[in-house]
Amino acid sequence: MDRWSLWTCERGGIDFVQIITAMMIIAIAAVSTTYSIYVGRLSFDDQLQEKQAIRYAREEMEYWSGRIFVEPLSSQEMLGDTQTGRRVLVDPRNPNDQSDNVWGRVFYARIIPVDLLLTGEETTDYYQIHVWVVWPDNIPEGQQRRIDFYSSMIQMNQ
Question: What's the CA dihedral at 43, 95, 108, 121 to 10 degrees?
Fold first, then answer.
């Protein structure tokens, strides 16, 4: 029996083409699995960031709704903050290194008092509030994501 006879197709062994084909299939499966995990992680990060942004937008909306009911807003507060915004932490990545955290900004537009003129009195019937959160997007780089909240809040007359 020849020592190479097991590697030839004549006696039912494995040939070189079959070995290369198996190695290619294993390599493609490994690369595909790694890429799927990477894409899944990015998708999870995007969902987490969007959830945090929604939470910050709701908090800002609740803050201004509460402020309207508790005390009258100043003229400066009624104008809104569309330029600088409040800086918020959308995604804390690594507690030991703050450089890769994802930061966003919360803005609110001019708060508009609306009188429906249905009551015959010159009172504010409701307020229109617009809040949005902006943060950088993972893919593609350099673009931003945005969540908008609109609210029409009824004024309770005493």
Answer: 110
